[in-house]
Structure formats: C-alpha cells, structure tokens
From TrEMBL:
Superkingdom of this protein's organism: Bacteria
SUPFAM superfamilies: DNA-glycosylase
Protein name as annotated: DNA-3-methyladenine glycosylase I
Gene source species: Maritalea porphyrae
Pfam families: Adenine_glyco
Transmembrane segments: none
Length: 206
C-alpha cells in the first residue's frame, strides 16, 4: 500500500498537475523568462482551468520562442495570424496581442529595474501583512490581496494587459512571493526552506 502524502487540496490526481504542485508552485523564482512566461500563461488561463494551460505549456513555449520577451516584442501581424492558426495553444486574439504588448512592457521594466525579478519581488508581502500559516479554508477563499491589487494596478499603469488582481495573486502564489501550501501539505516546509535560502534581487541603482 502506498503511503499517503498530504498535498494542497487543488493538486488533484493528474500527474502533470501533481508534478507542478510538487516541484514548481510556491518555490521562489528569480528567472526573468520564467516570470514572464507565468504572467503570460496566467493571462491565457483566464476563463479556463490551469490544468488546461499546463497541458499546453510546451506548445506555448514553442509558439512564443520560449517566452523570450525580447523576441516576442518584435512579433507583428504575421505572427498573430500564425498563433491564431496554432491549435496547440489557446487561440484568442486579445490574449495573443496582450502577450506581444506585455513583452515590450517587460523590456521597459528590465531597463528601469535591471531585471523583471527585481521589479516583481518588490511586491512580496512582509510579515506584518500576511500570517505565517493559512488553513485550507483560508486559502480557498483568498483570491486577491492588497499586494496583488497593488501589483496589478502598477502594471496596468505601465501598459500591461490581461493582468488583474486575481491573476496577480495566482502569479504571486506560483512564483513563491507567498507560500500558500497548506499546513498539511508536505511541500510547505520545502517551500519555506527554499525561501529562506533565496535572496530577492534588488532594483538597480537609479
């Protein structure tokens, strides 16, 4: 008999989802391409399940040059038509055009802050803003926070699209800016340890 392993309530039974939960979700990320990819995929996920996006993730990576935002920012009308014809991704014109727009905005952030990571990690909540542990019931009903609202508002001001406060919070959960692994999840302590050994990047000097 296999030993029961406690996981977050949402991880389900699909191997793709479980592996994502166990190895990615909630662990701190400072890789700019991964951060940009996550912003984009969260936008594509709007109205769909995250499992749907995960199953298409490799197709998205192939279609969008590995989410190299310097390349994506150069896409033109022919690329939009190409992507609209790609059955391996979510073929939504608004989301595709938002991804191209956001790539250009990402380059602007990179120029201003040095890295995308330095920008995003400014929005990590501190100990006074967030409890150390959250129950399953608390995590279930938590869709956005003051920090996610702040992040979404700032990105909107900077011209980013398809990134509201709920999407921002899902991004923060996934990229390790918050640790929402529940108390009975075996990944919670692993994520805490990863965060303890992680030094958030700082914006470049003005």
């Amino acid at each position: 008999m296999n030993e029961y392993i406690g996981r977050c309530f949402w991880s389900g039974n699909d191997e793709i989802y479980t592996n994502y939960h166990d190895t990615e979700w909630g662990y701190p990320v400072d890789d700019d391409v991964r951060l940009f990819e996550k912003v984009c995929l969260e936008g594509f996920q709007s109205g769909l399940s995250w499992l749907t996006i995960l199953k298409k993730r490799e197709n998205f990576r192939k279609a969008f040059d590995g989410f190299n935002y310097h390349k994506v920012a150069q896409y033109g009308p022919d690329d939009v038509d190409r992507l609209l014809g790609d059955a391996g991704i979510v073929r939504h014109r608004g989301k595709i055009e938002a991804t191209i727009n956001n790539a250009a905005r990402a380059i602007e952030l990179e120029k201003e802050f040095g890295t995308l990571a330095a920008y995003f990690w400014q929005f990590e909540p501190d100990a006074t803003e967030r409890p150390d542990e959250m129950s399953e019931a608390e995590v279930r009903k938590l869709a956005q926070t003051d920090k996610s609202k702040e992040l979404a508002k700032d990105l909107k001001k900077r011209g980013w699209k398809f990134f509201g406060p709920t999407t921002a919070y899902a991004f923060m959960q996934a990229m390790g800016l918050v640790n929402d692994h529940t108390d009975d999840c075996f990944c919670r302590e692993k994520a805490l340890a990863a965060r303890a050994n992680f030094t958030p990047p700082k914006p470049k000097s003005a």
